[in-house]
Amino acid sequence: MDHYAVIGWPITHSRSPFIHRYFASQTHQSLEYERIACEPDQFESTVNDFFYTGGKGLNVTLPFKERAYRMAQHITERVRLAQAANTLWLEDGLIHADNTDGLGLLADYQYLNIPITGQSVLVFGAGGAVKGVLAPLLEKKPRELFIANRTESRARELIDSFKQIAQINQVEMNAGSVNHHRLLKPFDIVINATSASIKGETLSFPNTVFAKESYVYDMSYGRELTPFLEQARQLQVTNYYDGLGMLIEQAAESFRIWRHCRPTTKALREALRREIGENS
Ligand code: NDP
Fold first, then answer.
1. What's the CATH code, domain 102-242?
2. What is the block-wise mean pLDDT of the chain (280 residues), using blocks of 10 residues?
3. Which residues does residue 145 pair with via DSSP β-bridges, in sequence order?
4. Which CATH architecture has domain 2-99+245-279?
5. Pocket residue to mutate for ligand 1, from 133, 195, 250, most atoms within 8 A of Cβ
6. Per annotation, catalytic residue among 56, 65, 141, 163
């Protein structure tokens, strides 16, 4: 049976096995999909072992997406731009890499009817997930995109990497700390792409980023509302969403790359929500 896995640290939270088994059943394919908990100093050796022993494909999650990019021997244009990868597979004896996070986010935004073109967008975080979604977001031509990160220098580095795409798409792109003065005024779209809630930590930032009509999105998800979404809800924001839809859509793209067929995702949204409600 073909063998796939998701690798990360921590990994127990990952719903990828449920999703890929669902896709396999839907498309009548026989495969197994597991979680690999990988200590930070063993990522490269674990990936090599996985493929050496016949593994077909890996999803890569935090904190390894940038290292997956660095170890890949063949990368797509999306990975070249993001310098981070979430999908690996072996082809002609070489480790290939793609990044489906941006496609996943945009597919979910389309499903949720969230407009991006002409809007002001705030993104919290500057890790692998942000690198994956920045180019697709910029290509949707928001009016403004601000990257706010706890470690300000990492946010600034992203400006350097993506300024050309921002210019081509006529987006005003800036970066700063999570207390930058721009955050004293609201944004149309606010995205949390930090790992704060997954680590049980608090993301502190000024409430002024939210207007009641803002679209607030947390890439994290869980049985309860994430602290970030709860904060938005308490400020009377009505349009708030977790990252479950993105998770499903990015997984569907990985599945397409590996198995050459794109599963449908609508019914899985409800099934996964139920599964999380029952088993978390
Ligand atoms: P990384 O480890 O690469 O980056 C983590 C980011 O979170 C960094 O910018 C880090 O800031 C910031 N951060 C961590 N803790 C805190 C804190 N307490 N306060 C403020 N900022 C903090 O992770 P990824 O980018 O790969 O993933 C980020 C999140 O997005 C994860 O929760 C992941 O599960 C989720 N995700 C969800 C997806 C989906 O499909 N729904 C897809 C991809 C990711 P600093 O630079 O200062 O360390």
1. 3.40.50.720
2. 97 95 97 98 98 98 97 97 97 97 98 98 96 97 98 97 97 98 98 91 95 97 94 97 98 98 96 88
3. 121, 173
4. 3-Layer(aba) Sandwich (3.40)
5. 195
6. 65
